[in-house]
Amino acid sequence: MSRIGLVVNPTAGKGRGARTGTDVHRRLEQRGHLVDDLSGPTLEQATDRARTAALAGLDALVVVGGDGMVHLGVNVVAGTELPLGIVAAGTGNDIARTLALPRDDVAAAVDAVEAGLRDGPRAVDAVRVGTPGTNAYEWFLGALSCGIDAAVNARANEMTWPRGSARYVRALVAELGSFRPFGYRITLDDGTWESAGTLVAAANVPWIGGGLKIAPDAVVDDGLLDIVLAGPFTKPGVVKIFPSIYPGKHVGHPAVQVRRSRSILIEPAPELGPPPPVAFADGERIGPLPLLAQVVPGALRVLC
Questions:
Q1: pLDDT digits (tens, 9 = 90+) for 97-124
Q2: Is residue 128 part of a domain?
Q3: What is the DSSP string of the chain?
Q4: FRET pair for 98, CA 20 to 30 Å: which of 123, 125, 218, 257?
Q5: 126: in domain
Q6: Total domains present in the chain
């Protein structure tokens, strides 16, 4: 019998999260596990409860919801031996897609959790990100967005419809009204990129935004970030290239480059353009630039 901490986002998937969480709780108990419900009225309170329970001796932490709940789980268990189980019940589920985990299938997701408990978890990379020169940081598993992709993410988070990637299309249209290319200074392992730019993403996984294939060749356990750098597109240029992100064909555009690096320092360059927006990762707000992100190979153990 395993002791499992369960954290549920009741609002995930247009309210399906609460029903899914109840179902997950019941199924885990039926299979003989001791389940501690660590959910809270806010993500901050749920995180605190999960961290307290982890110190008290959990065998696994299971999160129910979308990529935001995975972000919560990663920030509790990354860098420890405690494994993370994921029951995907959100609108995007990009991390579950990357890890080939079931989406919107509770029975299969619980089977995956049990398989990981039985056979051992999979080690994948996680990324530490924070203000350079400080010891404060948080973790992410998916992708760090620092361009119009971040601005669209922020606006999409304020919307209640439509679901999935269609919400990002609606948010993009709203963002284009005041868009001007941002000024960047990007420092990677092999050099610096200074330019006006439209999109900057440091990706540990291929997908963001509910199916946008931002970094088609990103691998979650290769010890590297795929850095997607898009130059100063005009507004019509953004509209034209955006649909090609779904299948990942944007990386073939001459103004887009993909570089690989173990770390990335992202700074505003006011002489090249207006300041970039607040950064997001796993769909969650990280904070303003400058930011330093560093891959930690094998820092996360996932039940799959």
A1: 999 999 989 999 999 999 999 999 999 9
A2: no
A3: --EEEEEE-TTHHHHHHHHHHHHHHHHHHHTT-EEEE---SSHHHHHHHHHHHHHTT-SEEEEEESHHHHHHHHHHHTTSS--EEEEE-SS--HHHHHTT--BS-HHHHHHHHHHHHHH-PEEEEEEEEE-TTSS--EEESSEEE-SHHHHHHHHHHT---S-THHHHHHHHHHHGGG--PEEEEEEETTEEEEEEESEEEEESSSEETTTEESSTT--TTSS-EEEEEE----HHHHHHHGGGGTTTGGGGSTTEEEEEESEEEEEE-TTTSSPPPPEEETTEEEESSPEEEEEEEEEEEE--
A4: 257
A5: no
A6: 2
**Interval 53-92: pLDDT, tens:** 888 889 999 999 999 999 999 999 999 999 999 999 988 8
Q: Which domain holds residue 226?
A: 133-297
* Tokens (6 digits) for 96: 């579950």
What does pTM read for this prediction? 0.92
Stretches in the chain below the pLDDT threshold 70: 10-16, 163-165
User: Is residue 304 in a domain?
Assistant: no
Q: Same structural domain for residues 45 and 164?
A: no
92 and 34 within one domain:
yes
The encoded tokens of residue 106 equal: 């509770």
